[in-house]
Amino acid sequence: MEVYVEGKKVDLTLTEFKILKHLAKKPGWVFSREQLLDAIWGVKKSVIDRTVDVHIKKLRDKLGKAGKLIKSVRGMGYKIEIE
Predict the structure, then answer these.
(1) 3-state DSSP call for residue 38?
(2) What band does 1 get if pLDDT is binned at 50, 70 and 90?
(3) How far is the CA of 82 from the CAs of 4, 14, 16, 46, in angstroms?
(4) Which one, of 65, 64, 51, lies nearest residue 18 by Cα?
(5) Which residues make Cβ contacts (< 8 Å) with residue 72, sequence separation at least 6?
(6) Dihedral angle sign, alpha carbons of residues 3, 5, 6, 8
(7) How would you label 47-76 residue by residue, b for 16+ Cβ within 10 Å and e otherwise?
(8) I need a labelling partner for 55 at 20 to 30 A (CA). Which of 7, 18, 78, 79 fits?
(9) 3-state secondary structure of 45
(10) Contacts of 75 (CB under 8 A, 6+ apart)
């Protein structure tokens, strides 16, 4: 499980990788925080929905320019938007 941006390897945590993978499966599709929580942590999760926000922020930072592809959809969730 490796991610490269502009030919450089980006070190992601397993959780960050899972979030990126889930978003990338359906570009343009908006996933709510709850959907991401269920997909990444499962239905027996002990984390709150704002945990997703923290991981998304870290993921965007690590991806640099490519982090712009992860869009926040106000009141709904997150998506990857391919330009």
Answers:
(1) helix
(2) confident
(3) 16, 23, 19, 32
(4) 51
(5) 56, 78
(6) negative
(7) eeeebbeebbebbbebbeebbebbeeeeee
(8) 7
(9) coil
(10) none
Q: In terms of residues, how long is the chain?
A: 83
Q: Find the helix or strand (DSSP H, E) in which 23 lies.
A: helix 14-25
SS (H, E, C) 18-80: HHHHHHHHCCCCCECHHHHHHHHHCCCCCCCCHHHHHHHHHHHHHHHHHHHHEEEECCCEEEE
**Tens digits of per-residue pLDDT, 39-55?**
888 876 677 778 899 99
Q: How far apart are the first and last CA of the chain?
A: 24
